[in-house]
Amino acid sequence: MEESEKKGKEERPEEKSEVSTQLVPSIVFDVHGAAQAVKQWERVERELLGPNDTYLVKGVRMINKSGWRKIALAANVTTEIVSVLTNPDNAPGIITPPAEFSATVIARAKASWGRVAEDVGTYSASEFLSKTGERLPVPKATVIARAATRAINRAISDLVGGGRVSAEEVEYPAEAEVPTQQQETRTEQKEPEDPATEFQLRYVAALTKSDVAKGILSGFLKVHGLSDINQLTKKQASELIDKLRTVSE
Q1: What's the mean per-residue pLDDT of the chain?
Q2: Using CB atoms within 10 A as the burial measure, which of 13, 17, 51, 88 is most buried?
Q3: Is a pLDDT exceeding 70 seen at residue 239?
């Protein structure tokens, strides 16, 4: 009996407590990649956005709806509305003060490289004010549309704009105004005769999908004695983009 127990003990390997020595992997920051992304963002602002793509709000220039749509196009980002919630549900077509109505919209932005961002935008009928700060009657559809604009702007910003606040987030009718040509010179017109930028050419190409837009492009090139868009200057590309946007957006 003793020999059997002894033999059994010899056959069983000695149990040892194991202590994990695996280290938690350190976070690796792609500093160079981040720096390049920031430079790309600065180029987009400098070369793609015009004076009608920003608002001056409390002395701070902010990108508005048209600007964020340009950025989404340049970055190959698509957007969609995920859900719309209204309160109350049975509101009339026109919201007349002091009646309350609000809309909450969730929007999703998708990048071609697989990244996705969702965000929420809200708008209330009480925000629809005159320049003197008085509430005005507002269509129900306008409230929903403005909530959607905020949601989409936010989603695009979260995806490619570093979470920057859009103009429509802080739009105060008495203070937010679209700058005129005299108020702000287009950045691309600082060197107007330089060749059009890559972003400008991509945007022109993206806007010339319809037959009407192609006709505008053809006529513009003919007037300026050009054979293709690669011969455009910054100033000409800016003018052409404005013309194409009237029929393509």
Answers
A1: 77
A2: 51
A3: yes
